[in-house]
């Protein structure tokens, strides 16, 4: 059981999340004639207003705005115009809509006195002026004629700008100038005048700009000339003061000298190092034995040493030859020995001479190297001094060059400005002048009426949805299940009015056994029987939320239908407003339930048999002062127990739940309780509260009966219970309770 309930809850949540477009369509369908009527009325009123409006004519002139200035000499920098971007065109569009341009047109066309700009004030404006004049605002200051003229000009200017439209044509340099006026000729004149005024204003602005540029350039040029002269004078004075010669201040001469001395120093250092090596070798040898110096290559390779060395060798060869022939004491041998000694002495003397020469050359090379090093150092110092002078010199030269360049630039700009002062050309021209329109531009009567009809239809639909949202009554079986969370037991259609009988539903079942109403009663009867097959509900109780919902009608007709099969007793337990006795033609003083419970009447005297329906009726009897005490007494419970033994089915009509608590007191004594709700009348929250009260006392509620259902209306709801209305042909007849 719990599983089935959870499945039902889940399916209901899913169905709530799904948007059912049929509900929206049904809402529109129910209010279609109201929506259409509202739209028709609004459209007719709109038609009257549109045809009473004065036609407005729109003239259009096309203006070409060039992105480049057609000047002979390019001086965009002087004018400060950058026409290569979109901001330029946006600026021009705003100029076209400016008040200055509008005032030019007003003055040119004398629009101050034009009748269109001097219309009398409307009814609302006149009323406000009259009210303002009556208010105690103090003494108003008098306005001078000049102030009045200024105010009038402002008003005309505002009116002209309001009717003016500037529309650029995309991806072109064209712009549409449109003006709306009641006079077609005036609209064309103003549109063309706006374009002409824009061109004239542009030319004047350029001419003024050229004049101002020339004046400013002349002032700047005079100051730049003096500045250039002063910088040149400072440069010359610095040259003379520092004795700077050459184009670069003597830097090239000093640099060449440094290169020369540096190269000489390198050669001298190389020569000194070579001689230093020889000198070191000589110092390591003993000069007393000159033959030791022959081991030094530089000494041995000396030409004189080699020549003397050759002489000594020849003398030794000669001596060696003589030694083969003669002895040591032979005169020739002695002469050869003497010659050899002389030759060797000469060789030693020459060797010493060469050694002394090498030592002297080393000293000279060392002295020369030191002298060249000193010269290099001095040249470097001179070069640094020249660099310092050159830095200052370059600063002065740069200043002179900058001043001269600036002076030349301004001089060139001044020449260009003066040369092109009379060659100004407009950056715009009227490519297509406006012509007086033949047809009015507005109002577009057909479009306005169509829009009025469509918008009114939309408002009507929205209003119908609003009414539907505000309608919190129960209209269909789906509302019963969704809003009340209760079982739909059945419904009773609305009966047609027949004469002055306001309670015709009391006997509708008996009078027309084959009617839709009778069939609906039988359907409810079947539902009650099928709801408890194993243990049938012997005591049935009918109640509602408030009076007038049809609980008594249901109790009567349900008793009639059950009486065709069983022994049935109908009890009127609504002692607040009893109506069953009157329905059966019984006297209000006839014995009934109150008499039976109180013991003032017997059972057979209190129960009345109805021959037409075959059921027994127990009316309310004399109304007691406190019916609730009577219904809650033990005697009432005892009476009900006795009656249950005598009848197969007992139907009780009790008071509404929201009025009194009688139904709550009866709940423990009945087998089934039926809740009646009047369709399209009862507030669902009210019915929900009534059901809640019954559930709190654990009343055996078996379902809800929707009473007085308008079948034509119900068929328009299109809910899932539409079969209720069609199965038995309910929709074929229109009935009223």
TrEMBL record:
Transmembrane segments: 33-51, 447-467
Highest taxon of the lineage: Bacteria
Coiled-coil stretches: none
Subcellular location: Cell inner membrane
Region (Disordered): 422-442
EC numbers on record: 2.7.10.2
GO terms assigned for molecular function: non-membrane spanning protein tyrosine kinase activity
Domain AAA span(s) in chain numbering: 547-665
Record-linked Pfam families: AAA_31, GNVR, Wzz
InterPro entries from the UniProt entry: AAA_dom (IPR025669), Bact_polysacc_biosynth/exp (IPR050445), GNVR (IPR032807), LPS_length_determ_N (IPR003856), P-loop_NTPase (IPR027417), Wzc-like_C (IPR005702)
Catalytic activity: L-tyrosyl-[protein] + ATP = O-phospho-L-tyrosyl-[protein] + ADP + H(+)
Domain Polysaccharide chain length determinant N-terminal: from-to ranges: 19-109
Stretches assigned to the Tyrosine-protein kinase G-rich domain: 395-466
Annotated family: Belongs to the etk/wzc family. Belongs to the CpsD/CapB family.
Protein name listed in UniProt: non-specific protein-tyrosine kinase
């Amino acid at each position: 059981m719990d599983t089935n309930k959870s499945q039902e809850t889940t399916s209901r949540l899913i169905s709530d999340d799904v948007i059912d477009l049929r509900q929206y369509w049904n809402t529109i369908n129910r209010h279609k004639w109201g929506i259409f009527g509202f739209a028709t009325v609004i459209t007719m009123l709109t038609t009257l207003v549109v045809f009473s409006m004065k036609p407005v004519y729109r003239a259009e002139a096309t203006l070409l705005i060039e992105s480049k200035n057609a000047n002979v000499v390019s001086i965009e920098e002087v004018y400060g115009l950058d026409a290569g971007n979109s901001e330029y065109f946006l600026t021009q569009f705003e100029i076209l809509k400016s008040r200055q341009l509008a005032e030019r047109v007003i003055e040119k066309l004398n629009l101050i006195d034009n009748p269109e700009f001097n219309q009398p004030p409307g009814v609302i404006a006149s009323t406000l002026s009259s009210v303002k004049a009556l208010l105690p605002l103090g003494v108003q200051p008098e306005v001078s004629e000049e102030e009045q003229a200024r105010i009038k000009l402002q008003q005309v200017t505002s009116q002209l700008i309001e009717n003016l439209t500037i529309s650029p044509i995309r991806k072109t340099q064209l712009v549409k100038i449109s003006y709306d006026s009641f006079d077609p000729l005036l609209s064309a004149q103003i549109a063309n005048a706006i374009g002409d005024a824009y061109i004239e204003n542009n030319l004047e602005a350029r001419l003024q700009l050229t004049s101002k540029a020339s004046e400013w350039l002349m002032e700047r040029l005079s100051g730049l000339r003096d500045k250039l002269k002063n910088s040149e004078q400072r440069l010359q004075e610095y040259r003379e003061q520092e004795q700077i010669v050459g184009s670069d201040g003597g830097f090239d001469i000093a640099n060449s000298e440094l290169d020369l001395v540096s190269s000489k120093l390198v050669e001298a250092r190389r020569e000194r190092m070579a001689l230093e090596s020889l000198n070191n070798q000589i110092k390591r040898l003993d000069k007393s034995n000159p033959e030791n110096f022959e081991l030094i290559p530089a000494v041995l390779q000396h030409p004189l040493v080699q020549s003397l060395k050759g002489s000594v060798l020849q003398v030794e060869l000669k001596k060696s030859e003589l030694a083969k022939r003669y002895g040591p004491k032979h005169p020739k041998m002695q002469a050869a020995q003497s010659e050899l000694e002389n030759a060797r002495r000469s060789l030693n003397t020459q060797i010493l001479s060469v050694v002394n020469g090498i030592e002297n050359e080393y000293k000279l090379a060392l002295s020369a190297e030191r002298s060249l090093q000193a010269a290099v150092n001095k040249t470097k110092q001179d070069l640094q001094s020249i660099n310092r002078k050159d830095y200052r010199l370059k600063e002065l030269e740069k200043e002179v060059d900058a001043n001269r360049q600036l002076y030349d630039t301004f001089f060139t700009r001044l020449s260009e400005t003066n040369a092109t002062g009379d060659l100004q050309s407009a950056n715009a021209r009227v490519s297509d002048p406006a012509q007086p329109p033949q047809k009015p531009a507005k109002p577009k009567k057909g479009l306005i009426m169509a829009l009025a009809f469509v918008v009114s239809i939309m408002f009507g639909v929205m209003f119908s949805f609003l009414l539907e949202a505000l309608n919190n009554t129960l209209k269909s079986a789906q509302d019963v299940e969704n809003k009340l969370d209760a079982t739909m037991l059945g419904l009773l259609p609305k009966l047609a009015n027949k004469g002055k009988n306001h309670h015709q539903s009391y006997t509708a079942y008996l009078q027309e056994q084959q009617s839709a109403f009778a069939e609906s009663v039988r359907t409810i009867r079947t539902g009650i029987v099928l709801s408890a097959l194993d243990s049938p509900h012997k005591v049935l109780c009918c109640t509602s939320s408030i009076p007038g919902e049809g609980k008594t009608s249901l109790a009567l007709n349900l008793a009639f239908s059950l009486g065709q099969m069983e022994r049935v007793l109908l009890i009127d337990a609504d002692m607040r407003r009893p109506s069953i006795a009157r329905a059966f033609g019984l006297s209000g003083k006839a014995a009934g339930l109150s008499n039976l419970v109180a013991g003032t009447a017997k059972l057979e005297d209190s129960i009345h048999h109805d021959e037409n329906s075959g059921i027994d009726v127990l009316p309310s009897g004399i109304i007691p002062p406190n019916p609730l005490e009577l219904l809650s007494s033990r005697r009432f419970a005892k009476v009900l127990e006795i009656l249950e033994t005598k009848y197969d089915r007992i139907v009780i009509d009790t008071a509404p739940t929201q009025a009194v608590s009688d139904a709550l007191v009866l709940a423990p004594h009945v087998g089934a309780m039926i809740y009646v709700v009047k369709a399209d009348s009862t507030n669902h929250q009210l019915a929900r509260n009534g059901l809640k009260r019954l559930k709190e006392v654990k009343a055996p509620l078996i379902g809800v009966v929707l009473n007085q259902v308008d079948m034509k209306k119900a068929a328009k709801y299109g809910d899932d219970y539409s079969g209720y209305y069609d199965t038995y042909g309910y929709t074929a007849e229109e009935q009223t309770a």
